[in-house]
Design goal:
Number of domains: 2
Helix content: 25-40%
Bound molecules: zinc ion
Largest sheet: 7 strands, mixed
Number of strands: 24
Number of helices: 13
CATH topology of the largest domain: Metallo-beta-lactamase, Chain A
Distance between the termini: 5 Å
Strand content: 15-25%
CATH architecture of the largest domain: 4-Layer Sandwich
Length: 416
Amino acid sequence: MKLVFHGACREIGRSCIEIQEGGSRVLLDAGMKVHDHAEPVRVSGPFDAVILSHAHLDHSGALPTLQRHRPVPVYCTFPTVPLATLLLEDSEKVAMKRGHTPHFSAREMKALEKNTIPVPYRNEYEIAEEASFSFSDAGHIPGSAITAFHGSEKTLVYTGDYKLSPTRLHAGADLPKAADVLVTESTYSEKELPDRKKLERDFCDGVRDVVESGLTALIPCFAVGRTQEILQVLEAGGITGAWIQGMGTKVCGILSDYPSYISSPRALAKALDESRFIETRKQARKVLEEPGVIIATAGMLDGGPALGYLIELNKTGKGKVFLTGFQVPGTNGRRLLEEGVVKTERGRLKINIAAEFYNFSAHSSRDDLFKTVERLSPEKVFCIHGDEPACIAFAEELREKGFEARAPQAGEAFEA
Ligand SMILES: [Zn+2]
Ligand SMILES: [Zn+2]
């Protein structure tokens, strides 16, 4: 088995690992660099198959371009199909709006839809000669998967993005039993994440205080997973009647078709029943007339209704922002936290209302990353999908524990 690392090497974005086995070439993910300048990973085929871990664009963004010259089957879980389609189509809409050249054509998108093969968790699929795989739940977003790839002699486990411990939306990741080779994400290898129960309590207390003092709590949320989790967190904390707007509402609709991919469809349905969807401009104006809670996309304030509400609340001073996920450098969310400004179509805007960050991360904490490596006990470990210091330090610490570990660079190839 030979591995070629095309992306997510000492960075987050462009996830793409090639496996060469018995004359076949298979890709694990084919993503794009999402922020600043969106840029799909560059690889040249032909490939026999792509195994897609989950819908996020840093893993799926290059899938349509791979269909340009010949059809390539793409395997993923059932909810990943509509979720990836939604995110890919939205990314092209945003690119066009900003005057960027589209990364793929409608024809390529159609080809991708035609060649996508949804498969359930825990079933073995033969995809090429001497190559089969199975998925298990990664606990990261609905439909996310850990891949166990079986070659002629070795088993490679690719974690994709995963969360080992449970959240309100997911049970924790369902790890395969063992691995000869492990390709692991490294996002939080240097950081412990806050205790979820305490985080939820602090978050609800903060939101409640804001509403009780007559202001609006603006909660920017990622559309897939975070919007739904935050709805459940608020409902469990006794805060009902939140307004929701943006792509997150579409995702709520999609998830209702795949109840088995979240841990409590009833809890989500209850939270949704007690929320209010903003569908018209008139409603959008009205919600700001009284204190309340608004959950809106985009999660990093780079456009969408969340940015619109921020601009409006900044004029009146009657609001507070609750960021609920990691804010990538170069995004409005990060600018707001570090410099108190955001970029709008009219230039930089000084924000005078308060903003707080609550890390509802969908990734594994440092402890859990190490626990997983120890549990799978692989001969070789490759640390990817983290910023440069995180990938390097993770590999270094694993070597100190006796594992053969490295943080590959883009383009590097290894015999596994
Ligand atoms: Zn992800
Ligand atoms: Zn990712």
